[in-house]
Amino acid sequence: MYRLLCEQHPDAEVWRSHVNDCLELAIRYELKDADLDSRLIGGDRDTFEAAINELKCARCLEDIFGKSSLRWHPQGSEGRIGEFEIVSDGMAKPIFVEVKTISPRAEERLEWRVRGKLRRYAKQVALPFMLSVHIEEVGKAEDFSGKRFKSFLEAELAKIGSVKARLPDYMDDKTGLHLEIDVSPISQKKPLRSCYIGIIGGNLKCLGTDEYVKHSLKKAYRQHPTVNQPYLVMLCHSTQFPIDEDDMMNALFGTLAYSYPRFAGTPPVGAREGPIRLPDGFFRPRRNRCLSAAAVYGEKFTEKAVQGDFEIYHNPWALNPLESIVFEGKCVRQFVRIDDKEMGWRN
Predict the structure, then answer these.
(1) How does DSSP classify residue 283?
(2) Cα 1–76–86 angle (5° rounding)?
(3) Comparing C-alpha atoms, which of 63, 49, 66 is closest to residue 15?
(4) What is the bridge-based pairing of β-strands 170-171 and 129-137?
(5) 208: which residues sit within 8 A by CB, 6+ positions away?
(6) For 37-75, how does the pLDDT look when each residue is reduced to its tens digit (9 = 90+)?
(7) Would you tell me how many other CB atoms lie within 10 Å of the CB of residue 321?
C-alpha cells in the first residue's frame, strides 16, 4: 500500500486514481466502516487485494448498469461488502452477486515464504553452485532460522568440489521443515555468482488453478441466496493466480481428457474416440444448480487508463438462469447454451 501511494512511475498514478474511484464507490454506498478500513490498511496483501477486488467488481457492474444500480443488503452468511445485488431497470429479478479473490492455501503460502527465505540466505553464500531443494514435509510454525541455515550451507558447500553432489538432509528443529538438498555446479561459461536455489515441490505440490477455481466456487456456493433469483459469482485474478479460459472450462465443465472407447462387436451408441470433458466440473445436471453463472474479472493497467476484462460462463443446468440478454451489447464476453447439446461464445 505504501508503494502504491508513494511510487512516482506514471502507471502508479493510474493505480491511485483507480483505487480512489473504488473508495469513492464505497463511501457513496455507505460501505466504509471499521471492517473495511482494517482490510485496506491492516498491512496484509491478500486481505487488501480481496477488499479492493470486491469494490472493483462493484464499480465494473455500476459502469455497465449505471449509478445506483447496486444494492447492499447481503443475504449471505457473512454479510461482507462482496455480496450485493444488481437491481437495474428491465430485469425480471435482481441478480445476487458474490465476489471471490482466488488466493493460495495457507500451507502453500508457507512454502512460498520459505522459498523466499532460502533464496535470500543462499545469496549470502558466494559459491558457484546451484541448489535444488525438495520440501518433504512442513511443521506447524514458519519461524525459519536463517542464521542456522546459512551456517549449514557454508559448512557443507565448502566440502564439495566441482561435481554434482547431495548434501545431508536438513531438518529445522523449530519448524520441523525437512529439506532434501542436491547441489549441481554452475556452468563455467556463466559468470561467478551466488548460489541459486530451485524448489521442487514435495508433499505440498501446488494445486492447478482450476482446482482453486472450484474451491472458491464451493465456498461461495454456501452463501447463495435463499430466495428465487439468479446468482452470479465473480472470480478475480490475484497477483499469484492468473485465470485463463482453460482453467475455467476445466473447473466448470470438467477436466479435458481424451476418450479411447473399447468394445467387442457392435460399438455402443455414442461411443467415439476424441476429446471429452470428465464429469468432475462444478456445473453438473444434479449438483450446484443454484449457481446461475461464474465470471472472471481481470484488469490491465496502462499509463492512461484501466481496462477491465469481464467474461461470464453460464450454468446450463441452473435453476434460476442468468439471462444472457442482460449483458448483451455491454462489452461482456459470454459462454452460453447454443442448443441442447452445445455451448459457445457470444459477445
Answers:
(1) -
(2) 80
(3) 49
(4) unpaired
(5) 247, 250
(6) 888 887 777 788 889 999 999 999 999 999 889 998 654
(7) 15
